[in-house]
What we know:
Shape: elongated
Distance between the termini: 18 Å
Number of strands: 0
Number of helices: 7
Amino acid sequence: MAEASTLAEIIDKLFKTVTRSNGSEHSMEHVAKWCAAWLKERHPTKTFSKEYMRQLRAGIADNPTKGHLEAIAAFFEVDPAIFFDSEKSRQIQADLDLVVALRDADVHSVALRALSLTPAHREQVLELMRTLQANQSGGEGRAAKAE
């Protein structure tokens, strides 16, 4: 089983993956201001600063409140479960990895072209890809079929 990501790694991944419409990262100041406003509506006594966001992302601060985590999750439009060591967290992170992969023009092109294939032809393409991956990693001829 893969080692669980730290809170800082997850927050950094969110910044790098859930980007602005032009593809650039949201600024920590923008995220912090949004989170502060979100928190103020729900928990008037809680605060959220750019410095705190920086500390969370850098791993300096690593024990945020439930409200802080909910605010960050709300900003990035992900389930707050992403911050906890669980199967759901791993699935959300895998979905984020897929988003990044689909940004690659070649990966996007392959995925779009596969949509027009029959299920049998898609399976042939997948089998070819498994063989190529096995060859690339030195396991020629030992491509295991994913289930």
